[in-house]
Amino acid sequence: MPAKKVAALVMASTLVGVIGAGCGTAPSASHPPSSPTASGPVSITFMEAMSSGTLKTAMQSLVSQFEKSHKNMTVNLEVEPSYGVLKTKIEASVTAGQAPTIAQAYEDWAAGYANSGAIVPLNSYVNGSHGITAQEKSQIWPGVWADQFLPDGKIWMWPFNKSDFVMYYNKTWLKKANLPVPTTWAQFASDAQAVTSSSANTWGVSIDPGSSSGAANGTYFFVALIRAYGGHLMKKGKPTFDTAASRAALSYVVHMYQNGSMKFGTNYPGQTAMGAGHGLFDLSTIASYYYNEQAIGGKFAMGVASFPKGPSGEGNVMQGTNIVMFSSASTLQKNAAWTFMKWLSEPAQTAYWATHTGYLPVTRAALPLMTTYYNTHPYQKIAADSLANARPTPPVAGMAEAIGALSNAIQAATIAHQSVSHALATAQSQAIQDLASAK
Amino acid sequence: MDSTDRRRPAAYLYLAPAGLVFAVFTLIPAFYVLYISLFNWNFLNSAQSTFVGLKNYGHLLGSSQFWHSLLISLYFAAGTVPVGLFLALGIALALMNPFTGRGFVRLAVFSPYVTPVVATSIVWIWIFNPQFGLLNGLLHMVHLPELGWLQSQRWAMPGVILYTLWHSLGFDVIIFMAGLSTISADLREAARIDGANRWQEFWSVTWPLLTPTTLFVLIITTIGSLQAFTQFFTMTAGGPLSATTTTSYWLYELAFLFYRTGPAAALAVLLFVIIATLTALQMWLAQKRAYYQ
C-alpha cells in the first residue's frame, strides 16, 4: 500500500476514534425512589476540599463519628487541595464516568451539573419518609434554605459549609480618632473619609473589585451594597444590574474612590492595608478572621461588626458550598449518601463543624449548643446573625461570567471615569449576553 | 533492496515511542479540538452536544471581544518581541567581551529565565503594588508621580511587558551569545584590517552572519508572546477592564472559567492559524535576507 494511503488511513481511523470518543457514554439522570432507605453494607465517596488544619481534622472526625453510628456505611473522603482543583477533579471524573457519590459544589457549578444530568434533585430524599420534618426545615436559615434550589424550583443541593461577610476595623484607631463603629453605609463612608490623609498615607478601605474572570471580595461588597439599597441581581429570570438601587450603590463606591478613602488592589488588599495600619476597615468573610489577626500581628486591636445597613437594611452575600449527589451512583449509595448528608446537617454535627472550623451553623437549632463557643468567639455570633440577611448569588449558568461584568462596571465608573449609568448599562447588556450564551 | 531500505523499519521502530507520545498528547488532542470547535459542546455530557458547523467561528469573528483580545495580544507582542530582541542582542554583544565578573553578570542575566513564572510574578505584583510597592517608592523618591501599575488601564500592560522582558531576556541572550560564538574571528579581523570601525564591523560582518540566529529568536519569541498566559493569569487576570485580556487569556476564560467549550476550541484553532501564518510570514521574509556561512 502506498505511504500516502497508509497515512490517510491512519488519519481517518484517528478521526473516527476521536469522534467515537466524543460520542461516549453520558451520565444518565436516574430518578431516585420516592421513599429512599439506607441499607448496607455500602461505601460512598465524598469529594471535598477541606484539606488543611482544623477543616481536615474536623471533617475526618465527623466521618469517623458517622461510621461508628452507621456500622453498615463507609464514607471515603477524596480530599482536594483547593476549590479550583475540586472543580476540575469533579468534572474530569464525571466526564470519565467515575463521578464520586457526593461532592461539595457552589451554586453555579450545581446549575451546570444539573443541566448536564450529572447530579440528581434531592426533593424525594428531603420530602420522603427518611427526609426532614417541617420543624427541622424551619430551623434552617431562610437564605441557606433558598440556596439549595435551582431556578427550576427543585432542591439540588444540601447545605454544608457557609460563611458571610462582616466588617473588620482597627478598633484602636477608631477609638483614637473618636469615630463611631459604623452601623450605616453613610457612617462608614464618613469614617473612611475622616481618616484619609495623603500626607499620612492612610485611607478608609481597600477592595479587590474583581475582573471579567470573576468576582472578588470587592465585587461581593458591591452586591451587598446593591441589596442594602433595595436592589437584586436578578428578577423574573433576568439580570437587573442597571436599576436605581445599583446606580445608588455604584455612585457610593465612585464617591469613596474619588475622595481617596477607597483604594483598589488584588490578593486581599483590605487585609494588607488594615494589617499595615494604612487602612481603617476590611470588608471580608468571617473566614478571614484568623488571617486578619495574623496580618495585624498584635499591633492593634481588631473589631468585628456586621455589614452596615443601607436604606433597605443589611445586604449580605452568602459564601461557601453545598453538597450535590451524582446521578451515576447506585440507589444504595444514594440512600447512604442522603443518610450522611442529613446526619451532617443535624444540630449536634452542625455545632461541632461550626465550632471546630469557624464556618457558620446552617441551622438555628445548633445555636443553643454553641453558647459557650459564642461567649469566647463573639465575632462568630455576629456573622451567624448576619446569615438572616445573606443571600447567595443567583444559581444560574453564566452567572459567574455576568458577575464579571459587574466587576468591570465598578472599574469602568472609577478608574475609567465612565458615568455610573453608562457603566451599569454596559454591565446589564453584557450580563444578558452571558446568561444567554451559557444556556 | 539497499542497506538504507533494510534499516528503514528499525528506524521507524526507534521513532515509534516518541511518535506515539506526540500523537497521544499533541496530534490527537489537536484534531479533537478542531472537532469540538464545530459543536455546541457539553463537556460534562457529550451526548447533549449539538453540531453547529462553523457557527462558533462566525460568532468569534463577529465579536468585538475577539478583535479586542487580538489587539491586546499584538500590543504585548510588539512590546516584548522587538524590544526583547534588540536588548538581548546588545547584552549578548556586551557579554562576549572579557571583563571582570563576566561570569557573574552572565548568571545574573540568565537566572530569571529559570525561575518559575508563577512565583516571580507574585513577587512582581508586590513590586507593582500602588500603595506599598518598590517601583512607586522609587518614583516617590525622585519626586515623579506614582502610577497605578497593574490597577491602571494604561499601565497594566507595560507592567506585564516589563516583567516578561525581565523573565525571558536571559534565554534570548544565551541564543545570541551562541550565535556570536559561531562567527569566525577571522572575518572580523579581516574587516578591521580593511579599515572598518566597530560599527561597520558589526553592521557588515556580525549582523548579516547573525541573521539565522535572529530569525530563530524572532520566531520563538513571537510564538511565545502570542501564547503567553501565566503572567496574565497571576498578575492581572486579564484586567483591569480587559486591558490585558490577550487571546490566550480569553481562551482560558472561555474554556476553563465559563465552560463555553465549543467557542473556546474555535478560538484555539483561530489562534493556531494566526500564529502559523505569522511564523510562515516571518520565515519567508527573513529567509530572503538570512545569510548562512
The percentage of residues in β strands of chain A lies in 15-25%
Whole-number count of domains of chain B: 1
Number of helices of chain B: 13
Oligomer: heterodimer
> At the third CATH level, what is the topology name of the largest domain in chain A?
D-Maltodextrin-Binding Protein, domain 2
Report the average pLDDT across residues of chain A.
89
Rg from Cα of chain B: 24 Å
The separation of the N and C termini of chain A measures 49 Å
Structural shape of chain A: globular
Determine Rg of chain A (CA atoms, Å).
24 Å
Number of strands of chain A: 16
What is the global morphology of chain B? Answer: globular
Q: How would you describe this protein?
A:
The complex is a heterodimer of chains A (439) and B (293). With 439 residues, chain A is α/β, with parallel strands linked by helices. Chain A folds into 2 domains: 42-162 and 319-387, D-Maltodextrin-Binding Protein, domain 2; 165-317 and 398-437, 3-Layer(aba) Sandwich (D-Maltodextrin-Binding Protein, domain 2). Helices cover 47% and strands 16% of the residues of chain A. Chain A has a 5-stranded mixed β-sheet, with helices on both faces. A 5-stranded mixed β-sheet of chain A has the order 9-6-10-5-11. In chain A, a hairpin with a 2-residue loop joins strand 12 and strand 13. In chain A, helix 18 (399-414) runs antiparallel to helix 19. The longest helix of chain A is centred in the N-terminal third of the chain and has 20 residues, at 3-22. The radius of gyration of chain A is 24 Å and the shape is globular. In chain A, 52% of the residues are buried. Mean pLDDT of chain A is 89; it is low at 1-38. Chain B is mainly α and 293 residues long. Chain B has one domain (55-289): MetI-like fold (Orthogonal Bundle), CATH 1.10.3720.10. Chain B has 13 helices and 2 strands; from the N terminus they run H-E-E-H-H-H-H-H-H-H-H-H-H-H-H. Chain B has helices spanning 3-36, 55-61, 64-96, 102-110, 117-128, 134-141, 156-182, 185-193, 198-209, 211-227, 230-235, 247-257, 261-289; strands at residues 39-40, 50-51. In chain B, strands 1-2 form a two-stranded antiparallel sheet. Chain B is globular, with a radius of gyration of 24 Å. The mean pLDDT of chain B is 92. At the A-B interface, helix 1, helix 3, helix 4 and helix 18 of A face helix 1 of B.
